[in-house]
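Appendix B, Record 12. Input sequence as logged:
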Amino acid sequence: MKSSHLNGKRGVVRTSPDASTGRQQIFVDDTRTVMSVKPSNVSEDELFKRPEREECPICFMPLSFELDKNSFRVCCGKLLCQGCVFAIAQNEHSCPCPFCRKSPYKSNGEYIQWLQKLVANKHPLALLQMGLHYNAGDFVSARNVTKAVELWEESGHHHAYLNLAYHFRRIGRSDKFRPCLEKAATLGNIQARTLLGILDQKEDRCSLSIKHLTISAEYGDETAMKLMRVYQDEKMVTKSEIDTIIKKRDQLKKSSRTSNRKIGEFMFESIGIKNGV
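Logged structural output:
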């Protein structure tokens, strides 16, 4: 896949003293991530609920929140961890799908044909994926952002809401930017939650910011962990709270890491395959 917001570069974390309060402000070098927006009417219980992690249907271990570290089977719509895909490739040279037994697509045309069948059946990941293609202008006849937005809105997947948030940010629709981030976060998108933490810090809603960043850091987001360290330096979180985050992060990481996954993710990254494409 040539262009995608599924795992976008977050930028470099920096701090700067606020002229009015003297407190360190947290932001990233990509200042486009910061817009002055108020929280929506989503309840705190819903907004700060820990996300449930989808399991790989083969090994039953939690899938990565980053879709680029999973493999979307465009033949039947299953989402597998790359460790299981690697194991299948080791045992069967043709690497057929373990569910529908189809061999991998042999051309871009065949890939799009299979994807369109899933789109016609309203498969959330297929709608997300096709939206990414229209947004980037690859695997389709021409770039069509309007079509991409329509597909993401229909998808309802948390990565689709993240992409909608980026779209509305680009066109200056702050009224839709934060609601899309919040929807993505409530559905389990960790990158969206980290951005909410940054937004709330910028608007001096530090208690909300810390709640968002705590969840993101527990689920392994490095940017969120760096920002929590800044809050620790500012005496706004304690060392004990940081230690608890690290413990939970390591437990979650251990529950979803195998040697096959490490090899599979390295293999897919090395040959430039993202999300099975």
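The chain is about 50% helix and 5% strand.
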